[in-house]
Structure formats: structure tokens, C-alpha cells
Design a protein that fits this description.
5-stranded antiparallel sheet, 3-stranded antiparallel sheet, Jelly Rolls, alpha+beta
């Protein structure tokens, strides 16, 4: 069996490593109510600008288990369809084991409310999205928007944002 020996290139012939820009931040917001789709797209675009990113990735993470993220179209009838679908899949009226405070013993906070339906709805959505950045801008399709989907009642929510990539010329990372 023949083996191939890889030659190690001379260090002097390698280009210098490209600078890497990293930035992290958060978006804090209050959702308006149950099954609301809060458009985060412009706030995320501002994060890309603040990060000084030219090309790279923007990672977005919902820090809650009864809310989620979604990339889709901001068309009111479509969003109504999504609400209807999630309501049929995980109705609020169903008796959820998570809501049985008489037997549940873990992860109980003060003022705990019945929200098993919200956790079930978030289960079929995503808690993270990774978005491309090119030319200093989010690369989304023509109709794509980035939403925080509130599966529970109106709540204070936090979304964590991490930018990683090549810096814009003249940015603090460069």
C-alpha cells in the first residue's frame, strides 16, 4: 500500500492570518402577548453594524424554553396560519403534566403559571438561528425576516447575539 507524504510549506510563504472579529450582545424586549411574532430583523442588522463585521456569521439564541426563533415571511395571513397550526398541535386547554403544580417538584419559580402548551409549541420551533453576513449586511432571502415567537403570554425576553468573522475595514476589530 502506497503512502503519500505531505510536505509542510515554509512558514515564510504563508500569508499572514486574517484578523477575526468577535462581538456579543443581547436584545431585551417585552413581547406583546401570546403567539406574537416579534420581528428582530432590523435589531439584528444593527448588531452586525455594531460588531463591525464584513463577512461572517451571526448566531442568534433565544434564552427561554417557552419562546423560539423563526426565519420566515412577514405576511399576516401566513403568521395566522402558523398560530392556528401551533394551537391545534399544542392547545392551551389540554391538561399538560408540566402544569400539575400539585405533583411537579422541579423548576418551580414564584408566580409559576400553567404554560405546558407554550413549551410544547417551542419544542417544534428552534432556539437558535445562524445567519450569514456578507458585505456588512445580513444575507436573507427576499421575504425572509427573523422572528422571536412568543409561545407563552406577554413576557420579558432576552435574545443572545454573537458575531464572528472578518471585520469591516476601519472597524475597531480590524
Amino acid at each position: 500500500m502506497a503512502t503519500t507524504r505531505l510536505e509542510r510549506p515554509e512558514t515564510a510563504s504563508l500569508p499572514p492570518p486574517a484578523p477575526l472579529c468577535t462581538w456579543s450582545g443581547r436584545i431585551d424586549l417585552r413581547t406583546p402577548g401570546p403567539m406574537s411574532f416579534v420581528d428582530l430583523t432590523e435589531r439584528l442588522a444593527r448588531c452586525v453594524h455594531r460588531a463591525g463585521l464584513e463577512h461572517g456569521l451571526l448566531s442568534v439564541q433565544c434564552l427561554h424554553t417557552s419562546a423560539a426563533l423563526l426565519v420566515n415571511e412577514d405576511e399576516p395571513l401566513l403568521l395566522d396560519d402558523f398560530r392556528s397550526l401551533l394551537d391545534r398541535w399544542a392547545p392551551r386547554e389540554r391538561r399538560w403534566q408540566h402544569d400539575r403544580f400539585d405533583v411537579r417538584t422541579v423548576n418551580l419559580g414564584p408566580g409559576e403559571r400553567p404554560n405546558g402548551h407554550a413549551h410544547a409549541r417551542a419544542l417544534v420551533l428552534r432556539s437558535t438561528e445562524t445567519l450569514h453576513v456578507s458585505g456588512g449586511h445580513l444575507r436573507l432571502g427576499r421575504w425572509q425576516r427573523v422572528f422571536l415567537v412568543e409561545c407563552d403570554d406577554a413576557r420579558d425576553r432576552t435574545v443572545s447575539v454573537l458575531a464572528l468573522g472578518a471585520p469591516r475595514q476601519g472597524s475597531p476589530c480590524a
